[in-house]
Amino acid sequence: MKTVFITAFITLAATFPAPGIAADDHAGHGALYAAAPAVADMADGLVKKVDKPAGKVTIAHGQLVNLGMPAMTMAFRVKNTAWLDQMKDGDKIRFMADKVDGAYTVVHFERTK
Ligand SMILES: [Cu+2]
């Protein structure tokens, strides 16, 4: 029972990093790490290509305000590679991207209709 509780806590902590934990990796981006992604940081995207071996997804995306990036088509890494199984070519998504270890990475996404 104790183990279950600890696992749940770690999962929760990973999902909603506290500012103190996130500070080292994401200095200067503190405002992004509220419990839920801010609407302004979500962008529309169209999945062009899922490359599971490379762990990447190519997305035609709208403006990414938090990254100062205009609309374009580019490849992203994903925070959780299991997400690549939930995406397929032609999917419309809403997503949030950030720079993780120097690479543009999808850190949140949801499918839209
Ligand atoms: Cu881009």
Summed up:
This protein has 113 residues and is of the alpha+beta class.
Description:
Helix content is 16%, strand content 35%. It has 113 residues and is of the alpha+beta class. The model is unreliable at 8-13 and 17-34 (pLDDT under 50). The protein has 2 domains: 1-35, no CATH class; 36-113, OB fold (Dihydrolipoamide Acetyltransferase, E2P) (Beta Barrel). It contains 2 helices and 5 strands; from the N terminus they run ααβββββ. β1 and β2 form a beta hairpin. The longest helix has 14 residues, at 2-15. Bound molecules: copper (II) ion (CU). Residues 61, 69, 72, 74 line the site of copper (II) ion.
Descriptive keywords:
single chain, 113 residues, alpha+beta, OB fold (Dihydrolipoamide Acetyltransferase, E2P), 2 domains, five-stranded mixed beta barrel, 2 helices, 5 strands, binds copper (II) ion
Terminal Cα separation, in Å? 40 Å
> What do the pLDDT scores average to?
79
DSSP strand content: 35-45%
The biggest beta sheet is recorded as: 5 strands, mixed, barrel
**Strands in their spatial order, largest beta sheet:** 1-2-3-5-4
Instruction: Supply Rg.
Output: 15 Å
